[in-house]
Request: fold
Amino acid sequence: MNSAQARHPSLLSLLRGLLAGFLLLANCLFWVPVLLLFSMLRLLPLKRVRLVVDPLLLRIAEAWIAGNSAWMRLTQRTLWDVQGQDGLRPGGWYLVSCNHQSWVDILVLQHLLNRRIPLLKFFLKQQLIWVPVMGLAWWALDFPFMQRHSEAYLKQHPEMRGRDQETTRRACEKFALIPTSVMNFPEGTRFSRAKHQAQRSPYRHLLKPKTGAMALALNAMGHKFEAVLDITIVYPGGAPDFWQFLSAQVPQVIVRIQALPVPAPLIGADYAGDAKVRQACQQWAHQLWLAKDQQISALLEQQ
Reply:
């Protein structure tokens, strides 16, 4: 192979990445102003206004995601190996749990689940509201913003301990009005080998799951959920960064979706105040993570 041929793949990846980035930005700048315009109607303090406006905002967000799927199909050459989409309902309520390796995970989930289940609603860090353009979009779509504090900070300011629980409760009250998918990455952060070693995680491919957010959602609206969607994402070529995805350097994505029954003992249970409930929730998450870890190992071995 001569030097010109050796450079060609890099040049092609660069061009794909620039085109994908341009289309991503254009799609965002088109839909976000539309979203913000209609979200202003919710300032009217009437429940019936929300019942009309909220579904409209969700349709706008779904069109936005469909636009992202369009540029992905145009610019990507990724092989998608997906199982478990059958039987999902766009009119249902779901608690969605997934392992987390990259910001690309969010695009993967939206691409595969858009209009198959209700729009995914993420619990976001408070600082993300200042992200240009996207922070406003997340606010318009009622994504809950959480203030996460260290245990040392909470010991000095115990009055802050219940703040996120109250934020979750208020968010779930809104989610209960129309079909919603509450999205949670139990690991709380993207997987890395350094974090894995620092945690001394008992799982081979996963960080330890944190159960607080799932427990709060089950407490507030567990009776609404028709299933827990356990989703596993595997990148056989290694977890990509955002540029690698844009520039079509992700050869394959494997996704497995499993609808599990909602754990009845945790519906409406007091996670914060009852040690037995916390133990039951942690044991449930541990079993979920054990099965996921084994599944990831099996999928990687097949490759």
About this structure: The chain is about 50% helix and 15% strand. Residues 3-39 form the longest helix (37 residues). Strands lie at 79-83, 94-98, 120-122, 124-125, 145-146, 181-184, 227-234, 252-260.
